[in-house]
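Figure caption, in words: inputs first, then the predicted bound structure.
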Amino acid sequence: MVKLSPSVLTADFLTLCDFIEKFEKSGVDMLHLDVMDGVFVPNISFGVPVIKSIKAHTSIPLDVHLMIDKPHRYIKEFAEVADWLGFHYEAGSDVAETLKEIRALGTKACLTIKPNTSAEEIFEFLPLCDMVLVMSVEPGFGGQKFMPESLDKVRKIKAEAMRQGIDLEIQIDGGINAETAPLAVEAGVSVLVAGSYIFSAENVEETVKEIKAL
Ligand code: DX5
Ligand code: ZN
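Bound structure (D-xylitol-5-phosphate present):
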């Protein structure tokens, strides 16, 4: 069964508790938290204090997606509140060292690639990853259109992980909905991130169940 990690980016934060309760009931696997610094991406979201508050209210594992410049500067702080911690290959940190640091802190490490980064560029880092996140939109905003080119990257990363004998989660993020989710699962995605599709659903619990049944 595919895992689901709803992104709270487009949520009304004052109603987040209600959503979290629904997510717990419907068996959501992770909660995706998008951290943006206004430098690596042209948008600003939230940081450690907000994640800490969410953590205090739920036992759903927190999947933190850092979209910040030189993320190695903040790994320690975020590793304390994250169960899965991901940063961008393109963000100007030493990739291997940063992945190792996340794991050494007892947190699952995720390497994330933007649409213009090829799958092959990160093959050498796969043994240091617990998850790879393939962006299917340019990072920065929710509600964008899915880029189908990302599916080929998912296939390549999956094949390479199998070749290297690595047990890896492959996550996709951006434009996931009822039409695109099945394509992602078919390509080999094991964790779907979905933001606006989940938070605008009429029946959140049903929508979660439908996606997870794919
Ligand atoms: C975009 C974020 C996404 C975003 C996804 O940079 O990384 O997690 O919230 O939103 P949707 O699912 O609406 O594309
Ligand atoms: Zn994200």
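The pocket of zinc ion (ligand 2) is lined by residues 7, 32, 34, 65, 173, 193 (CB under 6 Å).
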